[in-house]
Amino acid sequence: MEFENKIALITGGAQGIGRTISVELAQKGAHVVLGDINLEGAQATADAINKSGGSASAVKIDVSNHAEVKQVFDYILKDKKPVDIVVNNAGITRDGLMIRMKESDWDSVLNINLKGSFLCSQQAAKQMMKQKSGAIVNIASIVGVMGNYGQANYSASKAGVIGLTKTLAREVASRGIRVNAVAPGFIDTEMTRVLDESVREKLIEQIPLARLGLPDDVARCVSFLVSDRSSYITGQVINVNGGMLM
Question: How far apart are CA 40 and CA 169, in angstroms?
């Protein structure tokens, strides 16, 4: 129960990696606040955590909306206490060749993936600075490091998340706050299950460990980074990709 009496906000917690991270932290004693645009899905995950003996609640949040983000953080502070852990996981894709990409698809991906991480980190840092402790983990991506065909917007947003992570880590380290990023490779989630089997097989051929990652692989890394076991780690990008990028 290493996270006992800790408050953790996970954005995009309704499904996929966010859901798995939420379960992982709740199992270790944290009260998990699942923030998602899909409140019904977030509440279902929170209910499952509570039924299994954990502690969780759900809130609706559009991470690209400053007023909504502030409202959620104010609610957590009033209802519980300052946040101890924030995992910026909310993200979307709008794939397409850059030359044909709609400006709206560029804007929507950057707004959710990068601006959302900025807004939530900003509010988190304000609370954490007062208590002089806290941990923030931003979920980046392998494609933010190496790029990917048809994902100019997504790759740019995740590369931006990496830059944001390193800058914020420098700015808040003196206040006892650590900021790191996890860059997953290709993970077996709803997002990758829609790929043709031939495409999945080609991906696996590029991975030395010869499999897609699991949400648990990412969740365990996040759990380590927000724990006291990583108390001397900040400003880092941990690649969880089976060796696809070294």
Answer: 33
The alpha carbon of residue 105 and the mean position of all alpha carbons in its chain are separated, in whole angstroms, by: 21
* pLDDT tens-digit series, residues 130-156: 999 999 999 999 999 999 999 999 999
Structure tokens at 182: 């996890």
Q: What are phi and psi of 52, to 5 degrees?
A: -90, 5
**Catalytic (active-site) positions:** 154
**Is the separation of the CB atoms in 245 and 145 below 8 Å?**
yes
CB 221 within 8 A of CB 238: yes
Calpha distance 211→158 (Å, rounded): 23
Helix H, strand E, coil C: the string for 183-216 is EECCECCHHHHCCCHHHHHHHHHCCCCCCCECHH
Give residues with Cβ within 8 angstroms of 5, minimum separation 6. Answer: 29
Rounded-to-integer distance, Cα 57 and Cα 42, Å:
8
- Residue 119's pLDDT band, with cuts at 50, 70 and 90, is very high
What gap in Å lies between CA 240 and CA 238, rounded to an integer?
A: 6
Q: Give the whole-angstrom CA distance, residue 106 versus residue 75.
A: 31
